[in-house]
């Protein structure tokens, strides 16, 4: 388990965090969801394996603040389920990362990451 944040520490537009998956240094996006829970996604577009904010580090949202956006070719993802609703990978999903909340703290369940080539 890797502690990521307390619930109160997650800003309205989420936060990017680092984690290890096998030998690889990866980045994830941690969000509060509309139902009051939390969501975490691998920060990797489903069009090409690049961070959503590759061109503009830290810029993860469209101009309306409604969708996560890939800076490279504009794919839009719903924050609550990671579905790509527009762009070159429409219909695909961001990879969900396993997180759990215990006593107001959010943890990444590193033992459930599932290997290097999990999709
Ligand atoms: S790499 Fe994200 S839309 Fe092309």
Describe the structure.
With 119 residues, the chain is mainly β. It has one domain (2-112): 3-layer Sandwich (Rieske Iron-sulfur Protein). 0% of the residues lie in helices and 34% in strands. It is built from no helices and 9 strands. The protein has a 3-stranded antiparallel beta sheet with strand order 1-9-8, with no helix packed on it. Strand 5 and strand 6 (76-77) form a beta hairpin. The protein is globular. The mean pLDDT is 92. Residues 45, 47-48, 50, 70, 72-75, 87-88 line the site of FE2/S2 (inorganic) cluster (FES).
How are the SSEs placed, and which strands pair?
Blueprint: E1 2-6, E2 15-21, E3 24-32, E4 38-42, E5 68-69, E6 76-77, E7 84-86, E8 99-102, E9 105-108
Antiparallel strand pairs: 1-9, 2-3, 3-4, 5-6, 6-7, 8-9
The structure holds FE2/S2 (inorganic) cluster.
FE2/S2 (inorganic) cluster binds next to loops.
- Contiguous helical run count: 0
Straight-line N-to-C gap: 20 Å
- Number of domain modules: 1
How much beta, percentage-wise?
25-35%
Which ligands appear in the coordinates?
Answer: FE2/S2 (inorganic) cluster
Mean pLDDT: 92
CATH class: Mainly Beta
Class derived from helix and strand content = mainly beta
Question: What is the CATH topology?
Answer: Rieske Iron-sulfur Protein
Largest sheet: 3 strands, antiparallel
Low-confidence segments: none
Under the CATH scheme, which architecture would be assigned?
3-layer Sandwich
Order of adjacent strands in the largest pleated sheet: 1-9-8
Q: Summarize the amount of helix as a percent range.
A: under 10%
**Helix and strand string, N-terminal first?**
EEEEEEEEE
CATH superfamily: Rieske [2Fe-2S] iron-sulphur domain
Overall geometry: globular
- Count the E strands: 9
């Amino acid at each position: 388990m890797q502690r990521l944040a307390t619930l109160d520490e997650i800003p309205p537009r989420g936060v990017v965090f680092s984690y290890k998956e096998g030998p690889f240094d990866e980045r994830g996006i941690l969000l509060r969801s509309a139902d009051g829970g939390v969501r975490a996604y691998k920060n990797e577009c489903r069009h090409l394996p690049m961070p959503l904010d590759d061109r503009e580090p830290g810029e993860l949202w469209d101009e309306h603040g409604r969708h996560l956006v890939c800076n490279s070719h504009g794919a839009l993802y719903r924050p609550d389920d990671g579905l790509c609703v527009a762009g070159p990978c429409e219909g695909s999903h961001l990879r969900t990362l396993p997180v759990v909340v215990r006593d107001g703290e959010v943890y990444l369940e590193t033992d459930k990451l599932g290997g290097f080539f999990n999709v």
